[in-house]
Amino acid sequence: MRTETISAKDLVGVYQAGSHHMVGDGFPVRNMIPGAGVEEQLSPFLMLDYMGPEEFSPTTRRLGVGEHPHRGFETVTIMYHGKVAHRDSTGSGGVIGPGDVQWMTAASGVVHEELHEKEFAEKGGLLEGVQLWVNLPKAFKMTAPRYQTLVDAEIPAVELEKGAGRVRVIAGEFRAVKGPAKTFSPVHLYDVRLTAGHRTELRLPEGFNSALFVLHGQVTVNGSHVVGEVELAVLGQKGERVSLEAKQDSTILVLSGEPIAEPIARYGPFVMNTRDEIIQAVQDYQAGKMGHLS
Fold first, then answer.
1. Contact criterion met (CB below 8 Å) for 146 and 116
2. What is the DSSP letter of 247?
3. Contact predicate 43/209, CB 8 Å
4. What are the Cα distances from residue 31, in Å, to 51, 69, 177, 185, 231?
5. Where are the alpha helices (DSSP H) in the chain?
6. What whole-number distance in Å separates Cα of residue 182 and Cα of residue 171?
């Protein structure tokens, strides 16, 4: 009887934050993508900012990022601590707190704001989260904007064997359990919690770009490479298997996506395929075609 051998993904490199700065006046971030030195090899993921963790004192000010535009991609905000309020020019909006995810498809263009939620700001507290930018294929860049609020209770969790921890499936699929996020290209996004001294194995598709971002703790990848706190482990496209062993209780964000093999033109909050499309985006925003917040 022939047994199929599934090869392990290589670990291409381990990267630290490229910068540590404020976004607006409410989000202290460490930039991992592209600031860590990786960019094209992680398509469709354009950016990963790690917010906090930072304690905020009570205030009546609305800290955060005021009205600003986006076109051509999606923003994905994953909250671990604290609460953030969002509203945009399509009339969508809401509050996300610990365990919740906001998946905003800017597509043809939106204007939005992201602020500390009013009650959270007034009480103060710990803020921690991740924001991803996910590119859109050319065919979808000018489609209608879309907004998804994925609350903690709606995100399925898979308990790992022998008390090793759990995997929350935000997008894609893990062991036949599907996440609630609707995506325009194949993406797997997992919030993984591993218990110290335990190990587990993930399967990520061959040909996909994949990475592991360790928010807390320390893990050994494929039995040999140690990845520590606030480090990004980039994996190769070949193979499918990734083994993780937790040296400490660990929180890991796993991202894996099918590459978008198209040109990228970037300018601030706009990500398109050509310079002309970027110029058009700027003109459309200035002409009010992406709307405004009332």
1. no
2. S
3. yes
4. 9, 20, 30, 24, 11
5. 118-123, 275-286
6. 7
Rounded CA separation 55/67 (Å): 24
CA distance 41 to 270: 20
**Tens digits of per-residue pLDDT, 214-233?**
999 999 999 999 999 999 99
The length of the chain in residues reads 294
Cβ neighbour number for residue 91 with a 10 Å cutoff: 9
C-beta separation of 254 from 221 below 8 A: no
d(C-alpha 225, C-alpha 244), whole Å: 10
**Amino acid letter for position 142:** M
Structure tokens at 45: 């993921």
> If pLDDT is split at 50, 70 and 90, which confidence band does 22 have?
very high
Token pair recorded at residue 121: 């700001």
Query: CA 165, 167, 168, 174: dihedral to nearest 10 degrees?
Result: -160
Q: Which of 80, 96, 14 is nearest to 251 (CA)?
A: 80
Look up tokens 């707190």; give the residue.
97
Is the entire prediction scored with pTM above 0.90? yes
Amino acid letter for position 157? A
